[in-house]
Amino acid sequence: MRKDLEDYLQYIRAEAKSPCTIIAYTRDLRQFGQYLERFFEGGQVRSAEINAQMVRDFLRHLHEAQVGNRSLARKIAALNSFFRYLKLTGRIGKNPLDRVKRPKFEKKLPRHFTEQEMLELLRLPDLESLYGLRNRAILELLYSSGLRISELADLQLNDIDLHRGMLRVIGKGGKERLVPVGKQALAAIQGYLPVRAKLRTDESSERLFLTKSGKDFDQRQLTNILSRYFLQIARQKGFSPHTLRHSFATHMLARGADLRAVQSMLGHANLSTTEVYTHVTLDDVKKAYRKGHPRGNG
Q: β-strand 176-180 against 166-170: which pairing, if any?
């Protein structure tokens, strides 16, 4: 199985899977392999020997270890992708997961900021500071265009068309999409560009956002900067850069945006991924009804 696993990981790298997916799938599948090796003499497991019962036992083991629903769902996705590859390459005859009943996970509604909280958040950066101007542009663009933090980190200077108010984004799997940029975000970016010129060094790349030393941001650095602002307005823990993406989608749909247009802007391959935000807005509507209607609590 070890050789098959390495071949599979090389395959998904060639398929341009996102780095985060590759890291997660690698960890999940090696965990599965280590679990199986305990039950085989010499610790050697052949892929063709893996059956549905072994997969069920592994999933039961994860459940007993209190692995969360989202992590469990991802591990199942990793196993399914691996077994499909093995079947495609003729290394196994059947996908053992086909005979395993998949657990149904209750989808957690994505946490988002209210519109008022977003206004408060966007006012926090100190516009008298070079880095405050940069951070304001980062916040405005994440909220304006619903970007993933990885997509924002990778943005090049020439990806944004200030005249047309459009942004070219390279998303998961290297897929390109065009996303509108709002007037406030455009103004914030224009205010940041002179700062970028000051941060830039001879070694700087053409990335849009640069660190204090003129280098490229990584996701961790950006997350640390944003988290400091989140802590100033959040009434509870658990907010992340992705919360801005959730807020973008939720507020767009709450104000009547077309679901498929939001799907396109977010870069979701499946409409069902975007539909989770309709549940958020419907929940908000129900709360408003119960609060505002004289007989709403009846």
A: antiparallel
